Amino acid sequence: MELDLTDEQRMLGDAVKSLLDKRYDANARLALLESSGPEHWSRELWKQYAELGLLGLTFDEQYGGAGMGVGELAVVMEAFGRALILEPFIATVVLGGQLIAAAGTPEQKSTLLPAVAEGSTLLAFGYTEPASRWSLTDITTTATPSGDGWTISGEKIAVLGGDVADQLLVTATTPDGAVGLFLVAGADVVRDTYQLQDGLGAADVLLSDSPAVAVGSPADALAHIESVLDVATAVLCSEAVGAMDRMLWLTVDYLKTRVQFGQPISVFQALQFRSADMYVSLEQARSMALVARLSLADDDVAERRRAVQAAKIQIDTSSRHIGLEAIQLHGGIGMTMEYPVGHYVKRTTVIAKTFADTDTLVEIVGAGGGLITAG
Questions:
Q1: What integer pLDDT is reported at residue 374 of this predicted model?
Q2: For the chain, what percent of residues have pLDDT higher than 90?
Q3: H or E stretch covering 315
Q4: Is the pLDDT of residue 159 over 90?
Q5: May I ask the CATH architecture of the domain 222-367?
Q6: Neighbours of 307 (CB within 10 A)
Q7: Are 76 and 16 in contact (CB under 8 A)?
Q8: Where would I find the H helices in 258-300?
Q9: pTM assigned to the model
Q10: Residue 84 has what DSSP assignment?
């Protein structure tokens, strides 16, 4: 089992870091957040992601992708977490693109994946509903056969990237009770768009007899969705590690420069202890993010999912600890919009509520006997 990054993964990480260091400092990000236009992210940077091959990173080469794996995707997501990017990468590439790659027909892959890889098509995945919490099956959206296609009626909420998506993938129940995955044009839905607390765009989506096509076979859709969500959860863990790493070192640097009683406050032992505890939490999170990524190679679906869910619990616990300490050790400046640490706390807080919250994951993993089976 290989635990270290390969040379290719290091080169990829360095390339992404180099781009973001030049183009995505805290002031540039804040300018995007406060821009007056409808989009609070950079189309120019999105084009550069495409030129670097990031938008088609895991797609097969025949569809315009780089043919890389989850390991490379995790490297990119950790770099994105450090920079706190606002572009709809998770919505379009990690969720939408992966769903098309996993469940789509050859024709759908040939049409959509090259367009995603070149940056000309944005996707979003809508599955949550007002009363469904994070359930994939407790949904009221329905799909009805109509000629050679389908029509979809229902409502999806908090659709990440749904504010700008050209095409939306949505779940709906078919007449035989299966949960299918369907592709709907953005022009055929009604959207209430907004920004989440972390600055990423989202939308509540109303579908009223919206024309749609099935993505692959509805009978197989749920298994593909669950598999893609496992991948998405694992790489979200990597993104959170990048954000936590940045929060820790922002805090350490602040403690070295903030002077009180004639000396930097980093000399006070109590603050050193708290910084050390933050570092421990970061390394615990980093280790569990690695567990999540490596577990995706497990052929046992139940074991894979349990490892990913357990990793997310540690990620959420660590990010809460590091975030709260970062805010407290910075004092009032940590809560201002002009200083970056509060933005990192917002992002990790939203990650902790993505796909499932900590309490839900603890309940699920506990019901399954925990990560390590007794005996």
A1: 61
A2: 89
A3: helix 301-330
A4: yes
A5: Up-down Bundle (1.20)
A6: 23
A7: yes
A8: 269-295
A9: 0.95
A10: T
